[in-house]
Design brief:
- This is Centromere-associated protein E.
- By secondary structure, this protein is mainly α.
- The chain is built from nine helices and five strands; from the N terminus they run ααβααβββαααβαα.
- The strands form two sheets. Strands 4-1-5 form a three-stranded parallel sheet, with helices on both faces. The chain has a two-stranded antiparallel ribbon with strand order 2-3.
- The longest helix has 31 residues, at 238-268.
- 23% of the residues are buried.
- The structure holds adenosine-5'-triphosphate (ATP) and magnesium ion (MG).
- Magnesium ion binds at residues 61-62, 132, 134.
Amino acid sequence: MVFEFPSWDALNRNDNEENRVFNTDETTDKLYQDVAQPLVVSAVNGYNGTIFAYGQTSSGKTFTMMGNQKSLGVIPLAIQDIFKIIDDSPNREFLLRVSYMEIYNETVTDLLCDSRKKKPLEIREDINNLVDLAGSERASQTGAAGLRLKEGCNINRSLFVIGQVIKKLSDGHAGGFINYRDSKLTRILQNSLGGNAKTVIICTITPAAIEETLSTLQFASTAKHMKNDPHVNEVLDDEALMKRYRNEIVDLKKRLEEVSTFWYTVDSTHLHIG
Ligand SMILES: Nc1ncnc2c1ncn2[C@@H]1O[C@H](COP(=O)(O)OP(=O)(O)OP(=O)(O)O)[C@@H](O)[C@H]1O
Ligand SMILES: [Mg+2]
């Protein structure tokens, strides 16, 4: 079988200037500068942002997202930039929260938590998502049976559903029912897929398995048609901030009053706590 791929230039010249193909000579640093850094900057300016890596096993998802000492990945580069932006903006206040988790067998685990205290996480909404999809495309090729197959099905439930969701969104079904709730990953990424977020999908391929490469490219070309609707979340101007602080002061005063009433009651009955 012969597959003919368009040249890198032709792919890059594509219909949509937001598409970009990186060949083997280009570094993760270059990829970061071209497609990821703009998202990090806009996240600091109030947009939700998601960057996720999708592709067959050993194609370089972890290499791209985490990297190594010699070649930093998208995650450390993004963190460096976020701290630089914070340092360079002494007049702004930032609240930075980081979570790092794994979805395995449809169970979400906190990877920053002490392993003895690990317990499955409940899903909450969050703003910035940097995702490395372990083993995307893998299950169909493993030929696994029994327990491993069941495990494989569950691991791939998230990947299967993300494929479905992206397909529906790119078919123009945006007004219809989208099954975000069918997997943990799509619930977490709901805003990033067809919603209020700027999303970059990095698809990694390797010539090791041509069928998986084709299926990743199909995923990529479908995902290209997905339309998101990103808008700035809340930019607080000085007046809005003052209003928030005034409300907070009223609330704190009320709570202070409640506490002193309690102490008065305790004191008047000669009960002391301490
Ligand atoms: N662009 C690259 N340049 C040099 N080495 C790379 C590159 N991409 C991947 N590699 C190397 O290839 C191997 C497999 O890559 P990686 O572990 O990132 O794959 P993966 O897509 O995360 O696989 P899995 O689905 O199994 O997690 C690693 O040893 C990695 O260092
Ligand atoms: Mg990996």
